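Structure tokens please, single chain.
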Amino acid sequence: MTANFIAGFLSGAALIIAIGAQNSFVLRQGIRREHVLPIVLVCSVSDALLMVAGVAGLGALIESVPAVLDIARFGGAAFLFAYGIVAARRALHPHQLVIDAAVGSTLGAAMTTCLAFTLLNPHVYLDTVILLGSLANQREGSGRWVFFSGAAISSFVWFFALGYGARFLGPLFRKPVAWRVLDSMISVIMFGLGFSLLVGQ
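Here you go.
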């Protein structure tokens, strides 16, 4: 049982810990200390629900209906390009980090963006539903659910560490040039991911 849990934890971590649209957004919100708890909860709970779907067999269904992933691919690419443009515009007009600033994104706007990054990314379905679902279902009996619990916990650990650990970068991001660099990197990542989706990589 312990081996299945460790395997699930490491497999989940390997797929989640990467520079991507969702992680970039969580990092930026963590640095701003803006709506961190609901955002990390949405990311980790969404991962857990998708993993449950994969373990329950939804991965096989998606593989049999390629159109589902095609729709997610083109929709996700469009969203990534749009957010890349927004990040590029921010990079052209950087600002200082003001921890106690009253003006910021509303909770609704932040949650909508977070859900879009999570659900419009076809890779999240490939990783959580199909890949982790397949790995889990190679275990016998309750072993697949032990594997799932390890993978789900790795998601919670990562997003909470990313969201709340980012605040220690606060002093650095009091300088406008730091925001320029971060938003430039985010823009490049978004455009790169968008193009990768369009070419099917």
